[in-house]
Design brief:
Elements (H helix, E strand, L loop, with lengths): L16 H7 L4 H9 L5 H7 L5 H14 L2 E6 L5 E6 L1 H30 L1
Antiparallel strand pairs: 1-2
């Protein structure tokens, strides 16, 4: 008679984990915020995101493109310009980014009130 081995149940990962993993990268929210606000060219993103270097910006943009959040278009200019636009998936992420920014502002305000009350 054959015995049945029970496989241990694997814990399921929280569905939000994939989004959090995507957003946790350095400068991720800053880059997405800039693109949401209409800053869609590589050069202007590089100038407007304080402290970012070209390698990290290129990597984040590539990650977003691979994830289907951004589309990339090389414009036929001299020198060539690259333009990034939010895809439908990226547009859906917009509300999450905006809520995270609101949350951060609320926390900042609460911390400053706590400092005053000390």
């Amino acid at each position: 008679m054959e015995t049945c081995k029970m496989q241990p149940l694997k814990k399921t990962i929280c569905p939000a984990r994939r989004v959090l993993n995507l957003l946790k990268g350095k400068f991720t929210l800053e880059i997405l915020s800039e693109i949401i606000d209409g800053n869609i060219h590589y050069g202007s993103l590089l100038r407007s995101v304080e402290g970012i270097n070209p390698r990290i910006l290129a990597q984040r943009l590539h990650d977003f493109e691979q994830e289907g959040i951004l589309s990339r278009k090389v414009l036929p200019t001299s020198p060539p310009q690259v333009e990034y636009k939010m895809t439908k998936k990226g547009i859906a992420l917009r509300s999450i980014v905006e809520e995270m920014k609101k949350w951060e502002q609320t926390i900042k305000m609460l911390l400053s009130v706590c400092q005053v009350l000390k």
